[in-house]
Amino acid sequence: MWPFDPVTRAWSSSPHELARTGMPRSLLPDLVDPGALLGTVTTAAADATGLPVGCPVFATANDKAVEALGAGLGASDDVLLSLGTYIAAMTPTGGAESGAAHWSNFGARPGQYLAESGGIRRGMWTVSWLRSLLQSETPDAEDPYALDHALGREAAEVAAGCDGIAAVLD
Question: What digits encode the pLDDT tens for the residues 67-81?
């Protein structure tokens, strides 16, 4: 974990925490809440990226928090099952406390925390592995995504939730 204090939402002031990461505090940027205006695109950045000079640049959040925001996760009685590279469940929580079955993560809304379950670190690798099992020995040279398209068409025929069938890896 990064050397921050999840309660104060700031970098840790503990010399031990900073030493553990090997990063001097001078290399760490100031932390701001998601949605805070960081500045605007400079002329040099515009030349390098093609973005317009003066375009506002805002702070965002970690990948899981942005995923929860995009999925509309907002109430503590909602749960999101994230099927990324790390498969885990998330739900909004009132604070930074962690427990035996979850750890606390920053949310994408200012002051929000997400309780994230322990998970499976195989995530999308598993999807790729399963796809390779289904891949024919001679992929379609004309359309390298032919299998993806076929699987998508077949998945569209299956009811949401697959009538309760779930595969959980160990």
Answer: 999 999 988 889 998
